[in-house]
Design a protein that fits this description.
Elements: E1 2-3, E2 30-33, E3 36-39, H1 40-45, E4 59-61, E5 66-69
Parallel strand pairs: 1-2
Antiparallel strand pairs: 2-3, 4-5
Length: 123
Amino acid sequence: MPIYCDYTYGISQCDYNDYYNDKSSATDPEFAWNGSWVDYNTWRTHAFDGHSTTANPLYVNSAAYNFNIQPGSATILAGTGESAYFTTDIVGTTRPQAGPWSIGAYQYNVPPGPPTGLHSLGP
């Protein structure tokens, strides 16, 4: 599955992505580099996609088109802020929730931690 993230004109804005394909071949994904196609590892040797991953994003149910991400996904809080362009995800969840953005269309809602500063009132 070729991914057209081209460097032909000296500019590449590809970063903070998850290039996962559970049916991938040894050369998948491929990227356009100086007029030819290169694999992901070669692409990264040219200092592109330094913050990207090829890990399983752990979608809730991709077969049913539910691309929300589950706890443990490598995409959680691994994105970069694009607040100059938009401040919500595809379903209106505010970005970011706590810390960085999540990679992808859905912002992961980090569950709140346990309360702190509580004091016992009795024995």
